[in-house]
Amino acid sequence: MATLSIRIDLGGEGRIGPGKIDLLEAIRREGSISAAGRAMDMSYRRAWDLVDETTRICGRPVVASQTGGKHGGGARLTDFGEELIARYRAIEKAAARAARAELAALQSGTQPADIGIKREPDAA
To answer: Which Gene3D superfamilies match (predicted)?
Structure first.
């Protein structure tokens, strides 16, 4: 089945898309940026850069890091990081629902619904 991928462009600030959201979910699950990066076949440096970029784009921290100690360091999502994931996933679900019929038409090769798109006749 055809699927829809959502990328949110936040003006000139940057973009939030499935990769950054997947990384935040991995940080939530793994409890650290490095473990999340490993789970996604990504270097720690790349994972950290994406977290830093997301914080810059949003103007608010999405991850709170904890320095090492007896049991090592770690990271957890901030309340805003959790909210960002929830809002992104809600937008993704709403868009998928809205596009379901058109995606099915694309997949099956049938004519899409009339949504004001002029279709060129097939060349003979």
So the answer is: Winged helix-like DNA-binding domain superfamily/Winged helix DNA-binding domain
Closest CA to 75 of 44, 41, 34: 34
Going from the C-alpha of 77 to that of each of 4, 42, 64, 97, the distances in angstroms are: 26, 19, 6, 28
Residue 121 lies in a domain: no
Residue bearing tokens 């004519």: 111
CATH label of the domain that carries residue 21: 1.10.10.10
d(CA 21, CA 83): 11
Q: pLDDT tens across 81-90, in order? A: 999 999 999 9
pTM of the full structure: 0.80
At 7, the amino acid letter reads R
Q: How many domains does the chain have?
A: 1
Q: pLDDT tens across 94-121, in order?
A: 999 999 888 888 888 766 555 555 556 6
